[in-house]
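Submission sheet (multi-component)
Chains listed below:
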Amino acid sequence: MTESIVNAIRTIPELRAQLAARRAAGASVALVPTMGALHDGHCALIERAAAEHEIVVVSIFVNPPQFNDAADLANYPRNERRDIELAAGAGATFCFVPAVDEIYPSGAATSIHVSGRLTETLEGVERGASHFDGMATVVTALLNITAPQAAYFGAKDAQQALVVQRFVTDLHIATRIITVETVRDQEGLALSSRNARLSDEQREQALALSAALRLTAEMIAERRAQTPQQAIAAGLQHLTDCGLEPEYLSVTDAQTLAPASELRGELLIACAARLGEVRLIDNLTVNANREAATVQ
Amino acid sequence: MTESIVNAIRTIPELRAQLAARRAAGASVALVPTMGALHDGHCALIERAAAEHEIVVVSIFVNPPQFNDAADLANYPRNERRDIELAAGAGATFCFVPAVDEIYPSGAATSIHVSGRLTETLEGVERGASHFDGMATVVTALLNITAPQAAYFGAKDAQQALVVQRFVTDLHIATRIITVETVRDQEGLALSSRNARLSDEQREQALALSAALRLTAEMIAERRAQTPQQAIAAGLQHLTDCGLEPEYLSVTDAQTLAPASELRGELLIACAARLGEVRLIDNLTVNANREAATVQ
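Outcome: structure written.
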């Protein structure tokens, strides 16, 4: 049950007033936080949220503190009109499109930090600890502004979803965190706003990310690898064979991100690689316990 | 309009259920966060909260991360039965008395940091930056658990109140922060849970704190000091004359805590001093702009 969107909401008081009126009428509220540049991956989050809640707020906010690279921030694709149409089409009730100084008041000095492995490995290495601090701080602000029953995050950013679940648990934020499966194109490429920056040739090459992950997962699932290192080596080899510059390809515990010491339990296979100026990430999970291990 | 307390509430789900029922009936909720060892200063917060809200939650939680000194944590006075009676007498509806692992779930790794002068000066020097991180984190958790319309803090911890207002603003927490004037005994000593640890003789000496603040304030108000430094020197002299070991006596902007470069505007005069093993703080504000400057 959703309504059509007329306009973007730009201020916190207006969003709160709109939501208070709906809540008073008994509606439940979901939040889908985005940085815009919406694609079918975001639409899957919005559709799922709309299936489970009467009111869906899609926030569109490119958050400066979570970019460690000024060029990446400047080049991040923005197309507000198109984003709002896509969000509405997927079932959004409101698009919240605040300016930077609406989210960060004058003199803002607060940040949220999750310590330990969840933020220090994988994306935390290349993008810096401040990437996750910036993400955690803005997501907390958006949760406080919207006070949703549930918030939806993509499994493609698996580490981000784990960090969000961690601080939501620790700070007792009364919102359920829902992670939604990665959406891929027909050839297996995980949808990403950054894909728009790939040349046709790079787009072909980028297929190596999901292929390398599937290869690694299959080696684990079919017991062809005896150790995590063997499975990782095969995946990395595939990436470099295809001309990518891998940053990491890891096999870790899917909840703690501790490096897998053996091929047991729910494992996350994650990788990051560069194609020229574009940095892409992807991941799969595999349950190595089952009789016939399953890849997701 | 308050109700009598029967029992302490020890779990988050029970507190949330109780509050949800009252909210559904239209009640507004206030929070008074305390570390127990209640005195008339806390009771003044509770009474003010009860005058302005139907439901008053008093939390009693000695928060380990905000103690930099294990002995201070171990010696912090605890008397739950008495605290609950005092809170009920002052108008509390519920006392929330969680165990440490109710507030900090297994694997907790999240902290909130306010950067800059608000946390780096005065109490931030002696007690360390982690003191305010610990306070900010637990207050955020308590605000998220209780979701109050307003939360009440004592002006005696002036810097704490400024830090709370900063992160509540920055994180868009939908709670008004109310600061309530310091309660003093008949001789001017600011009430503090730590006063219980003073000997009779030390209690006499401790009067020098408020006396030194009044002296400093009067020198500003009556234009007897030409510079902040002159006023500060007089206050410090009084402390040492009375046998106290002053840690600091400062004259700063009352909002930013920037050291006052001239005697203008709303100024905070704050001091910390030791009497043997006990560390005490106190403060006054003075408006140096007015024709006849006023001390509060």
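Remark: Chain B has eleven helices and eleven strands.
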